[in-house]
Amino acid sequence: MSKDALKGPLPVILALPVLALLQVTLQDHDFLIYLTSLVGVNVILAVSLNIVNGMTGQFSIGHAGFMAVGAYSGGKLSLEMKDYALSFLPHVVSDQISFMLAILVGGAAAALCGFIVGLPSLRLKGDYLAIVTLGFGEIIRVIVQNTEAFGRALGLSGIPQSSSLAMILFWVFLTLLVAKRIADSSHGRSLWAIREDEIAAEAMGVNTTGYKVRAFVISAFFAGVAGVLFAHFVPIINPGSFTFVKSMEVVVMIVAGGLGSTTGSVVAAVFLTLLPEGLRSAFSRLDDPSLAQKVDQIRMPIYGLLLVAIMLLRPQGIFGTHEIWDRWKKKPKGAT
Amino acid sequence: MSEVLLHAQKVSIQFGGLKALCDFDLEIKSGDLKGLIGPNGAGKTTAFNVLTGVYRPTSGTVQVAGEVVNGRLPHQINRLGLARTFQNIRLFKSLSALDNVKVACLAESHPLFRASGIEALRKSGQSFMANGLDALNNYYDWWRALLLTPGFLREEVNIEDRALELLSVMGLRHRAEEEAGSLPYGEQRRLEIARALGTRPKVLLLDEPAAGMNTKEKAELMVLIRELRDRFSLGILVIEHDMKLVMGICEQITVLDHGETIAYGTPEAVKKNPKVVEAYLGEAAKTDRPIGATP
Ligand SMILES: Nc1ncnc2c1ncn2[C@@H]1O[C@H](COP(=O)(O)OP(=O)(O)O)[C@@H](O)[C@H]1O
Ligand SMILES: [Mg+2]
Known about the structure:
The structure holds two protein chains of two kinds. By secondary structure, chain A is mainly alpha-helical. Chain A is built from 13 helices and two strands.
């Protein structure tokens, strides 16, 4: 029994020393840390959106909205808590504790929004749901843009730079673990069933509306977490970081990776985050360094082209609905 | 006498001006094997849809396991013990055959708060509280999956065992890992039955389970259906076009035409009923051709 009891949290316990080691080794490589952090945040976003769009077959295009809710609520909280260090603890520890608190609050706030948006709108299908999520993302952006407390268009600055590589990778790991365990349970199968055929799923006893809302809530939670993490390593967050373009970026990632494939989402998120950085450093070697600055402007057209290319060449994405390891799984004995 | 598990009384449904089903009566007990026949567009599938909660009846009541289910959602009605298959196969195509059945073998829920307590709250008008507790129960189920509690792991093993057993029963054990959508037609129909059985039904509704099969497959399927009834002590209602098959295995037959029940009784009685002959059998009966078979 004691072995079984450990199974649940075991991967997390094993991961912690590895993350700590990474943190120590990479300590002095600022750019590398920044890049890895960016990749980490995007992986969390892609994997969490894949729970709704890929596993459940819904079409949400407002993921940046949930990210914004997390970033602003968590960031605001950290700003407020800045001066209240727990004096009996070393500074770093106190800092990370309040950071963790901000992450959980940001995630919870986003999850709540996911519930509020999800409950009425998940009775809608396809395009209608897409429009609602799109509207949600824009509403959040407009609200933030017009609220004094959130710095209006200027955004929030001065948020403590508490994001550490270890913390970000820890949440990446947690997101992946949750996605994997959902996929390995009856809950995951119910989500797939909804994706495949909602009427049949309902007829087989699956509470489709309930499952869709829960998928939405979980997905929103991790998007919120990603937002908080993001807010704590960039110098400033403003409404411009959470536009429709950001939502589309995440959608492109999961479509490229293969809707429904968690590992596909990871691969695509890593690649599509590093691509602009790679271009930037490649261009900066050329004689005309202004090209490097143009990378951000040509990023969306490149994503667009990429999406078109994928749709033409491999519409199911890199991995389809499968995971990387499905390739190695052996066929059952009796199979023809 | 065993209790009536599925009971429809004067059930009617109207789509705009069209009365698709009119005063439909039905009683299924454990061990019953009944047939529902009628020409194309008679309202047979519509009857299934009303019974399983896909449509809400315009009038009349449907009872499953003694509870009135008018207005309940299909998954709630399924949980009471009514399962079905679809005329136009609706498998989870890109999932494996095994996963198709596993979806239906829903985990037993291990509620934090007892269902009876929640029901009592709801009846006393505190539906907000009841919904809240329901939600907590659901999230608790997710936690068990995320933390891999021993109970959860045991349950997953049980689900897999049961799903494999049902595949064996339907002769699909060797197809377990194959994509449902890639199976031959006849096997897809059998897989749909396996999936429906996964929900532990008391009553099983089969919508043209033999459609698209060849004669040999059809005959085997009918034997299998009777075996299922005995093995799982089910009540079964079959929609079937092939008159010979229905006559061969069903003990009672209801005949629909334009939504109206025009005959009910044993196969012999139904076959001789002049209304049936007129509305449905026509030339087919004289030439002894199976009903629905294209002339
Ligand atoms: N959702 C619907 N809306 C309108 N008409 C419907 C609907 N479902 C079924 N019908 C109509 O009800 C009649 C009975 O159809 P159906 O039950 O599928 O017949 P069958 O006996 O062949 O299974 C048909 O005329 C069909 O067009
Ligand atoms: Mg029909």
